Amino acid sequence: MDPVFSLSNETFKYFLGHTAVVIAKTISVAVVTGFNRVSNTAFMNEEDAKAIIGGAPDGKPKTTPTIDRLKRMHMNDLENVIPFVLIGLLYTATRPDPASALLHFRVFTTSRVLHSFVYYFAVPQPARALCYSAGMLSLVSMIYTVFSHGAL
């Protein structure tokens, strides 16, 4: 039997690819937030505001509605992507059917990409809630699989 955490394991390869996508997406939100901070001279810390040429004249931290929205997006990503990485590893260790695993990973990844899109562009609800729910259902299903393999 091939090692579980090896590129010879189709499920693990799927997991690596989808994990890379959601982590890259999370990093991109951080980069966009930083770009918005610099372009709007809106910094969280006084020392940052004072250090940047053209920064806030009084050196006081400030923000914008877009930056606040990006921060919430980033926090939401961290609250969902980190559990996906950890649960995905546990799930992969159960050696699920590769097609089933691919479905779980695709649902989660697609839901997170769509979630960011609808969050950033303030698409009316229930769009964001549906995206979140699809990703959460994928996580819950993977957790159930781990538990059903006698993890308790």
UniProtKB/TrEMBL annotation:
GO cellular component annotations of the record: endoplasmic reticulum membrane; mitochondrial outer membrane
EC number annotated for this UniProt entry: 2.5.1.18
TM segment ranges: 12-35, 129-147
Subcellular localization(s) per the UniProt record: Endoplasmic reticulum membrane; Mitochondrion outer membrane
Keywords of this entry: Acetylation, Endoplasmic reticulum, Membrane, Mitochondrion, Mitochondrion outer membrane, Transferase, Transmembrane, Transmembrane helix
Family, per entry: Belongs to the MAPEG family.
Protein name in the entry: Microsomal glutathione S-transferase 1
Native organism: Plakobranchus ocellatus
